[in-house]
Design brief:
The structure is a single chain. It is built from nine helices and twelve strands. The chain is an alpha/beta fold. It has a ten-stranded mixed β-sheet with strand order 3-2-1-4-5-12-9-6-7-8, with helices on both faces. Strands 10-11 form a two-stranded antiparallel sheet. The radius of gyration is 20 Å and the shape is globular.
Length: about 270
């Protein structure tokens, strides 16, 4: 298994260069086909309209804004991939961002998204990584908007609690885990329960992954904060985890650990559901 197709979301946010740099590094490392996906959202008239603008003026503002964002995104994609000796494709689609990114992710081995923040374009929903991770059926890699150490995936923390989601994430992340210099299987015990971290280490070993188990008792501290703390202690450059929750029409229910990591992430987070 490897990442034959990687999709990277290209919108007009300020952190796009870092996201593209990570995606391009990965495409080079895994000899992947890299797709730069840009989504043009539809014009949505305001619910409240006071008549100070005619509708044609609002539509023109929307079109001009989208044209500028598309140009900036695709220019950044071209600059990031130039001379990298990888197969690339620009893909431009019209529609709602979450739906189109999710749809495209289902035909990819990995989708690279950015951590959402206040500088994201209005059409990029603040829960985009969660929506895609929960709905696509494929793993996503969320890149923080703060600078990250590259290349990523040399020192990886695998969050493990013997759940279906953590097993799915571990299996989907095998290309990273096999290529890593160090893998730590991190689990937190509640009431002394064995989370099976050592069994996971043995399974990984049969795939050629050299991993070590770290088991800790679960106290009163939020698990997401504990994971981030251990990532700092161990010098990790990526976190692998199963994402918990479900999606409804414009409603997101997400596990607390996932919410904490996506809000306060300091290294890229590989997620699968």
């Amino acid at each position: 298994m490897t990442f034959k197709t990687i999709v990277v979301h290209c919108n007009g946010d300020k952190a796009i260069q870092q996201r593209l740099a990570v995606a391009t590094d990965l495409a080079t490392r895994f000899d992947s086909y890299l797709v730069g996906l840009h989504v043009r959202p539809p014009f949505q008239p305001p619910v409240y309209f006071d008549g100070s603008f005619v509708m044609d003026d609002l539509y023109k503002i929307h079109e001009d804004t989208q044209a500028a964002e598309q140009k900036a995104a695709l220019t950044a994609f071209a600059a990031a991939t130039e001379g990298r000796n990888i197969a690339v494709e620009r893909e431009i689609v019209d529609g709602l961002v979450d739906r189109e990114v999710t749809k495209r992710a289902r035909c990819a081995d990995l989708t690279v998204l950015g951590q959402t923040g206040s500088d994201m374009p209005a059409a990029t929903l603040p829960d985009l990584p969660e929506v895609v991770a929960l709905a696509a059926g494929r793993p996503v890699l969320v890149v923080p908007y703060i600078p990250v150490r590259r290349p990523i995936g040399r020192n990886v923390i695998l969050c493990w609690n013997a759940s279906r989601e953590s097993a799915r994430a571990a299996a989907d992340a095998l290309p990273f885990l096999k290529d890593a210099d160090k893998v730590t299987v991190l689990s937190f015990r509640a009431d002394g329960e064995d989370m099976g971290a050592h069994a996971a280490v043995k399974w990984l070993g049969r795939h050629g992954v050299k991993a070590a188990a770290v088991e800790e008792s679960l106290g009163s501290v939020d698990v997401g904060d504990l994971v981030l703390s251990r990532a700092s202690d161990l010098g990790a450059d990526m976190i692998v985890m199963g994402v918990y929750g479900h999606t409804r029409v414009r409603e997101m229910v997400l596990g607390g650990v996932s919410r904490t990591l996506l809000r306060s992430m300091t290294v890229p987070v590989f997620m699968a559901h």
